[in-house]
């Protein structure tokens, strides 16, 4: 079985290989203000918007005892 990875930039000289897990695609609507905030935070943290949202959902589910 072939392993697939995505690359996340940690700094100008550091990268991290992250194995892909099987994932589903979802769609939802947010306000323009929320999107701008997500864009800004993701850029500050060096993350993609998807990674930021995934992390937020993961942290919420973990805090609620669902994971």
From TrEMBL:
Residues of the Ribbon-helix-helix protein CopG domain: 25-64
GO biological process: regulation of DNA-templated transcription
One Pfam family matching this protein: RHH_1
Organism superkingdom: Archaea
Database matches in InterPro entries: Arc_rbn_hlx_hlx, CopG, Ribbon_hlx_hlx
Name of the molecule in the record: Ribbon-helix-helix protein CopG domain-containing protein
Lineage, top ranks: Archaea, Thermoproteota, Thermoprotei, Sulfolobales, Sulfolobaceae
């Amino acid at each position: 079985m072939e392993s697939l990875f995505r690359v996340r930039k940690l700094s100008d000289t550091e990268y991290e290989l992250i194995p892909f897990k099987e994932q589903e695609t979802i769609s939802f609507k947010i306000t323009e203000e929320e999107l701008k905030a997500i864009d800004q935070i993701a850029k500050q943290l060096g993350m993609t918007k998807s990674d930021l949202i995934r992390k937020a959902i993961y942290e919420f589910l973990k805090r609620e005892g669902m994971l």
